[in-house]
Amino acid sequence: QVQLVQSGAEVKKPGSSVRVSCKAPGGTFSSFGLSWVRQAPGQGLEWMGRIVPILTVANYAQKFQGRVTITADRSTNTAYMEITSLRLQDTAIYYCARDVMGRNNAFHFDSWGQGTLVNVSS
Amino acid sequence: QSVLTQPPSVSAAPGQRVTISCSGRSSNIGSNHVSWYQQVPGTAPKLLIYDTFQRPSGIPDRFSASKSGTSATLGISGLQTGDEAEYFCATWDSTLSVVFGGGTKVTV
To answer: Per residue in B31-83, pLDDT tens?
Structure first.
């Protein structure tokens, strides 16, 4: 496990954008992926997408295609997740998680950030 | 509506055993490994099981898991009050995404 440290809580207006950061220890980005997972109040977990920093390739859950952008800065070992056109329903805790993809699509999250609350309110 | 189906809650007395089911399809559980996470209220999820039945270091063997067809099961034996939490299953799906179960609240 590694310690992932996320940026602080945000309050945003509907229609605006928010960017959440996730800083990892040096070397973490070398061979792992970094996913973003959100959890609306009282709800379950929802995967948004992931990036493989060493390849700077990101893929997204269909629901978030076009509205979410995941990037990574290898020089600072920091990943970012930006959501545009925020809606009230985007109010949630957003987690980054280091993911491990093995053979035959064996996939799991072995470390999680502490979570960032994004509150979308008019 | 979650892609994987879990019971909303299970309960048992201290020392007893509970099982949590996670039902999916051939496109997810049926063809891929499953992982399980424990989430204590107010905290981030924590990895309990990966690759269907493997435990990370530090996870006691009271936690076990299995899979059959398109369903997976998490078992917790010797229940302790510290096991009270929500438990989620997850797996890769053929839609090239990760899917989760809706979560099961365990009450001891």
So the answer is: 999 999 999 999 999 999 999 999 999 999 999 999 999 999 999 999 999 99
**Whose structure tokens read 């040096």?**
A26
How far does Cα B13 stand from its chain's mean position? Answer: 19
- Interface A-B: count of C-beta contacts within 8 A: 76
CA dist., res. A122 & res. B19, Å (int): 43
Min distance A97 CA to chain B CA atoms (Å): 10
Question: Is a pLDDT exceeding 70 seen at residue A30?
Answer: no
Residue type for position B62: R
Residues of B in contact with A37 (CB under 8 A): 45, 98
What pLDDT digit, counting tens, does each position of A86-121 carry? Answer: 999 999 999 999 999 888 778 999 999 999 999 999
Range list of β-strands (E), A32-103: 33-39, 46-52, 57-60, 68-73, 78-83, 92-101
> Which residues from A are below 8 Å from B50, CB to CB?
100, 106, 108, 110
